[in-house]
Amino acid sequence: MGIEICNESGVAVDEAAIASVARYALDAMRVNPLAELSVLLVELDVMAELHQRWMDLPGPTDVMSFPMDELDATRRPDSLDDPESILGDIVLCPEFARKQAEAARHTLDDELHLLTVHGVLHLLGYDHAEPDQEREMFGLQNELLAHWREEHAAAQARERRHRADSAVLRTASLEPPPDPQ
Q: Which residues are registered as beta bridge partners of 65?
């Protein structure tokens, strides 16, 4: 699965984690592993321009999704039999998301992970215009995010243990052998 991240926002973000949560959501939704996704992080003015142009709404927003291929019953990106497809683009605005993160009392990274999953679901045809659609989409979004966080935290813990073990082994190999007296 190809996931390209391009950060033009001027805000330092954990691009690897954004790619990881996007990949997790796509895998969990059984999207063809040959599918490609682009994630673009932009400044407030760029997002405001996109929001006005494509949604006819003023001001910036947190996330926008631009599907590349129309989803229909004959060709879906979640079918493993389909040829490679370009899912589309997710555009994130970290500066806008930072305000939402503060209001929700979590980190910018947490907010960007949530918005990435939200964007993926929009690319796959989910919407939240109606109450029943909102319940379905947000429930799925929360479930995917919770499972990714568990797996991500476990992977980080394994990496910390590996680094600690490697440091101990390097230190042990640098110590001179005991005196054979």
A: 90
Residue written as token pair 């994630």: 39
Task: Determine, yes or no, domain membership for 178.
Answer: no
Query: What pLDDT, in 10s, does the model give residues 105-162?
Result: 999 999 999 999 999 999 999 999 999 999 999 999 999 999 999 999 999 899 888 8
Residues 6+ away with beta carbon under 8 Å from 115: 62, 63, 92, 97
CATH number of the domain at 27, please: 3.40.390.30
**Tens digit of each residue's pLDDT (9 = 90 or more) over 62-101:** 999 999 865 443 444 445 555 557 899 999 999 999 999 9
Q: Domain containing 44: what range? A: 2-173
Separation CA 113–CA 116 (nearest Å) = 5
Number of structural domains the chain divides into: 1
- Rounded to the nearest 5 degrees, what angle is found at the Cα of 80, between the Cα atoms of 76 and 84? 70
Residue 132, CA distances (Å) to 69, 104, 145 in order: 25, 23, 20
Q: Is 3 helix (H, G, I), strand (E, B) or coil?
A: strand
Backbone angles phi, psi at 179, to 5 degrees: -70, 125
- Predicted TM-score (pTM) of this structure: 0.83
Question: Do residues 78 and 124 make contact, with C-beta atoms less than 8 angstroms apart?
Answer: yes
Other C-beta atoms closer than 10 Å to the C-beta of 101 total 20
